[in-house]
Amino acid sequence: MAVKKLIILLTIGVLQLACTVTEKPQFIGVEHIEIIESTPKFITFAAQARFLNPNDIGGELQTDEIKVYINNNEMASVSTENFEVPAKKEFSIPLKTHVPTNSIFSNKNLGGLIGSLFSKQVKVQYKGDIKYKVFGFSHTYTVDVTENVKIKY
């Protein structure tokens, strides 16, 4: 009976050592910032945060309060439900937000808006944190990316 327990404990120990959990997923970057929908009430911006998870075990990513700036003015924030991280895989999480049209056309954004109309582009910035959690281990990735996004009339 004692040999059986020893074999079970050794098996569990070897499996734990064989599984890579201590490495954090690699944050590749934020890509493909674009306008995906435009209505009289809101403009929807989307981007993809790309990661590579070298671990044998997944985890969870959380995007709390990533701020979205349009022409240097804070317009909205991105908060999504927790995202399940796949094991040993490259993956993306969507960062989508709706910006009210009236906030883009407000007085505080008027100077940037006039410049945007001439250049046919808006400056979009995603800034905040993405948190990774697995088995009590956590890591925070800082997101700060800016792109000029073309406006289609």
UniProtKB/TrEMBL annotation:
This is Late embryogenesis abundant protein LEA-2 subgroup domain-containing protein. It holds the Pfam family LEA_2. Residues 51-146 form the Late embryogenesis abundant protein LEA-2 subgroup domain.
